[in-house]
Model the fold of this input.
Amino acid sequence: MYVEPGTHLMQGDEAIVEGALIAGCRFFAGYPITPATEIAERMSRRMPQVGGVFMQMEDELASIMAIIGASWAGRKSMTATSGPGYSLMQEGLGYAIITETPVVIVDVQRGGPSTGLVTLPSQGDVMQARWGSHGDYATIALAPSSAQDMFDLAIKAFNLAETYRNPVIILADEVIAHVREPVKVPPHEEIEIVERRKPTVPPEEYIPYLPDRGEWVAPMPAFGEGYNVLVESVMHDEFGHRIGTDHVAAERTIKRIYYKIEKNVEKIAMYEEKYMDDAEIAVVAYGSTARTALRAVREARNQGIKAGLIRLITLWPFYDRLIEEAANQVRAIVVPEMNMGKIVREVDRASKGQAKVISVPKVGGVLHHPDEILAAIRSAVR
Amino acid sequence: MIPEAEFEHVLAKKYMRTEIMPHAFCPGCGLGIIERMILMAFEELGQEEWDRTVFVSGIGCSGWTPLYFRRDAAHTLHGRALAFATALKASRPDLNVVVVMGDGDSMGIGGNHLIHAARRNIGITAIIATNMLYSLTGGQMSPTTPEGARTNTTPYGNIEPNFDLMELLKAAGATYLARWTTYHFIQAKNSIKKAVKHKGFAAIEIVFQCPTYAGRYILNRPDPRDMLQWFKENSIPLGVAKNKSPEELKGKIIVGEYLHRTDRKEYTERLRELEERAKGKGR
Done:
């Protein structure tokens, strides 16, 4: 049923599917789009084999609404797309946020704007992942750097989605989606899977948007279980009733869905540090760029420069404290990104002026050359 | 049987979220009649059917309709009710999924989802409440606004021909189709009953009175009773309409049961067959 434990040669797009299935994903809806199509293709083959449903929808507006509908039917669900499709999904993303629906959305980033660089990588959607839908909300976005990450983060994404009843975005890119490399699959029983918390009270006592004491979100029943839930896109109170002009109740709802993510940043944030113990220059990178950045850091070390790497795995919520502490340690922070410089704004803000922040933008659909990052590291030493 | 005089009250107590009532509809709005059609249909279908029924709606006045029912309900996004409902049905084929949409919701912004739900022949009951314009935003032209009609976005008269929902969905692949008005209470209620039991995509268009906008702008009848009278006088049964010329049918509402096909397999049945084939093959 699942991919066997052991090491397999897998494409990123395949690894994410196998990870999702192990996480319990039983519904996938999508629309073909380069370079995410392989995810839908593999899902169409695999999903029915594990008793799940695969649907090719008429567009991405429908795809995201379908996975939200499936989630309320009690199934863990996922979609995968790229820039143009991800733009269309912003309305559904907002719906998942206000209705607190756990879903996983994979955005295999390609170059934009618009149809853009169809077959080439980019990290241009990192701010869209945070701010793309209208209104105030917080979101969780993870950035894989390898096929192994695609497998691991698929599982992690479902766990976070269920824990916080929030959409989780996996911000892959064309390189990570298509890279073929060894993926280690642990024994299935050793993999931590978070299952949906269901209400334990009788239906007449259940309040759909009122968290239990000490929790940020309410338990979530499925349709057809007798709880008479109201899944409401209009601003609502704890009962799911729309609140018209009751600004106090509206503020309460908006702040809770915002803080349930932002106040749990320490639990959600994942990162990896290399050579940071004695580092004087830090490179902050994510996704496929982190691979190039590691090469540049090693080369700098060879040249006697004390450089280190902080690889962000969780992009959103942004882990300010991690960057602030790094800024207090190093002289400069180099931020290479396959965009015109986006996460560097967050790094600059979080470092509070304690270190020089150097942006190394790269657009046009190609990875940085390690020398470009190395040059930035060397410029920081001077 | 519930005594006729108390019917409405008893239906409300039995089926509705009375704690959030009175509802937000304008006085004289036909959506209350549509709510009652739905509840009467389920009263006659029985508790077992009601217990496995869930509701999905879009945005617009009509989107509020099923939210007053004490059942699982999703108030989705403008136009996207069918996408949500499709996944719900595909995930839980045992549930009756009833979707209530308006004309702009279903044929305007949601037109793509509508034709594809019909093409898939997925077992959803779509109740499409047509009032000939966008009402929640204050009376603008919709895909069912008659040609020449003045609305707040067609101040010189509407130059766009309107959709014929029945023909559209017949071509797209729906397998049960009916059109009524709020004047045709019994007929519409019976069609809803049939649609709920039907295996396949079923759509019932119910033309309803919006005295606030359509009544004033399009029909020049701001009184809801006059609008119902107009529906009565301007509806032509399907059988009668067959023998009339296009000129004679201009501006008329052709009512009746348009289609009841059983020769197309329902989508979730096909899904189940696909799953069996896939499991036979292994990984």
In short: The CA atoms of residues 292 and 370 of chain A lie 5 Å apart.
